[in-house]
Amino acid sequence: TTDPHDSRSTRYSSDLAKGFDVPIIHVNADDAEATIAAIRLAMAYRQRFRQDVVVDLVGYRRWGHNEQDEPAYTQPALYRRIAAHPTVRQVYAEALAAQGIVDPGEGDELLKAVEERIKADHDDLKRELEAAVAPTGGRPPLALKDRTLPSVDTTVPEVVLADLNDRLLEVPEGFTIHPKLARQLERRRETLGEEGGIDWGQAEALAFATMLREGIPVRLAGQDSERGTFSHRHLVFHDAETGEKHTPMKYLPESRASFEVFNSPLSEYAALGFEYGYAVAAQEALVLWEAQFGDFVNGAQVMLDQFIASGFSKWGQVSRLTLLLPHGYEGNGPEHSSAREERFLQLAAQGNIRIANCTTPAQYFHLLRRQALGPKPRPLVVFTPKGLLRLRQATSRLADLTSGAFTPVLDDPLIAAAQSHASVGRLLLCSGRVYYDIIGHPAYGETRGLAVARLEQLYPFPVPAYAALLRLYPNLNEVVWVQEEPQNMGPWRSIRHRLEESLPDGVRLIYTGRPWRASPSEGYPTAHMREQDRFVREALGAGS
Hints:
The chain has 19 helices and 16 strands. With 544 residues, it is of the alpha/beta class.
């Protein structure tokens, strides 16, 4: 119903493929056999050369957008010609009759037989669906509504992790690691010792390696994901002299599954759409897609809304697709700070997805393994850090990986160690990297009667774990939710009711963070630091 020159700038809709040297096959949709031949040629090309190919099916819509549309309103001349034009079936039937393959009129008999078979199948399906409806006459409840997450053992023996760690640092004889990277990698040997220091990149690599050892395929794609946008991952080594590549993960002797890592184009809509399809088709695999910055997932919003969040409800599709979205306010401006937690929480319902914001590498390690091993596949959204990737306070020990599990709510470690919960009247609850801003603030050491806990799993909200946390503090006066996102963004508006539900009588719930804003963050580092300091002081009760 729109003229071609209004809908695109080229003669053919397929012309975009010319920019990528992709072969294009134009075929007349009225020629049924030519259309089949074009598809067969395209499939053979892809199978032989492992490259993309485009089939441009040149045809028309007899009914406009749908059977109820009236395209003649805007295309009267065109649709007079279409109305007088025989259908593809009629054109093909006449061609077959002219060749003596079918008798004149036999095509109509074949059409009638096919229509009757389709109607019979449709009637059978209706009867099956009616028989499956619950006795009450309502729709059977979706299994999706079960939001409980089965317990999964995600620990790995120390001897296994130590061996995998050594294997991941091996390179072929004569392979030259860049001197700066060599020092980073050498530290990964030391971090398994008593002093610890396992960072995010190392914990992730160990998680991947253990999955391969257990027969779980792993696939990671994203902009610069081989190295990691923030130079923290280094799954692929590059010889400093020759540029030759080496991926240690592909040479683990005990690996029983495939490992793939790709630097995908900075086209979130296309890349995430492909990975979602891959994850649905290969449900035994852990498929991960990483945004260069979490903000960039905005470009894939259609995939999130139409498929990832609602795929099970609409089509019964489940997957283990895992989104890694770097998130956190470091003063880098509004396009490099927020992965829009609020949007994912708005899409979360009936246990359709899982959303986490980890604060330690060990939590990330156990979360990835739970995602791969759990019996109930669901998409997982992880708000991964940027500034915490090398922060000493945000590291883990080997014992944290060989024991424990992903914990949806973390108590204040100092209060827990001292068993001094009764002395606390003010509990700060936060999620993500802002935790380190709070405990690293100069005013933190001057506070008394205060504890800082972390909400690591945002959805499904861990109601029992949160209630158990509150029960540890018998003398609470107030719970303060602290977030660095503006008040109309971040988790606050989605989880406030959950925070209030478990509060003991007389305990107040207070919000502390940025006020309502149209933009996610400040555009200048100085303004960011000033605002970050303001609300952290407010949360600590330290004044201005």
